[in-house]
Design brief:
heterodimer, A: mainly alpha, globular, B: mainly alpha, 9 helices
């Protein structure tokens, strides 16, 4: 572990850093193939993305999947609840870094910062009201291995007012964070 | 990319169905989940992570999640690989040895320690190590960690992969493959569940 790392010991909405355990590509070695993989050129400044860009094609496809699942809000679930699914998944899997980013987004878009903080402090059992509870519970069932998501989760999401397109957004958002959490947790660690 | 969408195939989503229409509203996500699959299993450059190893890791990871259409698909993919077919049985035995339920593991020492949950620390059995080889032994042990107790991952786990011959680029693709399958399994399971609820 690098001596400069100061890892957080609790879930937080503060901005954290992230330090890689293996070597990212140096900025000076990036080619056009790598920049295509980064999608946004500014990501060349990020240690995390300069590590993942060792496989540029996979990174590019992953980034575009991520952006559509979370940012394409012309219809379906409001952004706040997509972020809630990401934060709940990260809280349950134990990814302090991902939880910090997506709890912050959930707070920004929902204006329910205290409820989001209770999810971080108390865990996925926190009572956040029927609609959010349904989203959190579905996310947890999807994150469990073997996968525990079943007809009861669909019924609870429907009772909370979600239609099928919105339920698909919960499935996509929560599933995607089972991808993201495993990269952030295994390749490096957060720092305060 | 002409081939049929792999998530649609594994989830049983028919063209023209209600779920097909919903997925069409997230076309970029659908197409790029497909591209992720293709670039992991039909890569531009497989030099750091050969195709037989990719098929072996995929069969192991999806099998650890329990029997499903996804696990069957990757088991067949392994069986169809000239260098992988001989490993199908050994991997099946290791899947059974590694079966448990997650997520579990330890949080950083402090207030979260009360949430620590102990569980299986999987190691490949001694008798199958020669058959699998050092690279796959290290890969399976790390994949099990990522599937069930990702919060336990530490810098020492990276060193174990490196000591078994994994390059930094190979480790990135391997991590993406395990993490991507964690996503694909859940999307397929979620969509199948939703389709069944509507049937």
């Amino acid at each position: 572990m690098s001596p400069t790392v100061n890892p957080p010991a609790v879930f937080t909405q503060d901005e954290l850093g992230w330090v890689s355990w293996i070597d990212p590509l140096p900025e000076t070695e990036l080619t056009e193939r790598h920049f295509a993989g980064l999608v946004d050129r500014a990501r060349a400044k990020s240690e995390y993305f300069r590590l993942l860009v060792r496989d540029p094609e996979v990174l590019e496809a992953r980034t575009k999947t991520d952006k559509d699942i979370f940012y394409n809000v012309a219809d379906g679930l409001p952004r706040a609840e997509r972020e809630l699914a990401a934060a709940a998944t990260s809280r349950y899997n134990g990814c302090i870094y991902c939880a910090s980013v997506h709890a912050r987004f959930a707070s920004t878009y929902s204006k329910r910062r205290d409820d989001v903080q209770r999810l971080l402090d108390e865990g996925v059992g926190a009572d956040l009201g029927a609609r959010w509870n349904a989203v959190v519970k579905a996310s947890v069932a999807l994150a469990t291995t073997p996968i525990a998501f079943g007809p009861d989760n669909i019924a609870e999401l429907r009772r909370a007012g979600l239609d099928d397109a919105e339920i698909v957004d919960v499935i996509n958002g929560a599933s995607f964070f089972n991808w993201a959490n495993r990269l952030m947790l295994s390749l490096g660690e957060p720092s305060k | 990319m002409g081939m049929q969408d792999i998530i649609d195939t594994l989830a049983g989503i028919e063209p023209g169905s209600a779920l097909d229409a919903i997925r069409a509203r997230r076309l970029q996500a659908r197409e790029n989940a497909q591209k992720s699959y293709l670039f992991l299993f039909e890569p531009v450059d497989a030099g750091d992570f050969p195709l037989a190893e990719r098929a072996a890791v995929a069969a192991f990871v999806t099998g650890l999640h329990g029997e499903s259409p996804v696990a069957a698909f990757y088991r067949e993919k392994l069986a169809a690989n000239a260098d992988g077919a001989a490993l199908v049985e050994a991997i099946q035995v290791e899947i059974e040895r590694g079966q448990t339920s997650g997520p579990y593991g330890a949080f950083p020492a402090g207030p979260l320690s009360i949430e620590n949950k102990a569980g299986l620390i999987y190691r490949v059995s001694a008798e199958r190590k020669p058959e699998l080889g050092a690279r796959l032994v290290a890969a399976f042990e790390h994949a099990h960690l990522l599937v069930f107790r990702p919060r336990d991952a530490a810098s020492a786990d990276m060193k174990a992969l490196q000591a078994a011959g994994w390059s930094s680029t190979g480790i990135v693709t391997f991590s993406q493959l395990v993490a991507f399958l964690s996503f694909q399994l859940r999307v397929v399971s979620g969509l199948r569940t939703l389709a069944a609820a509507n049937a």
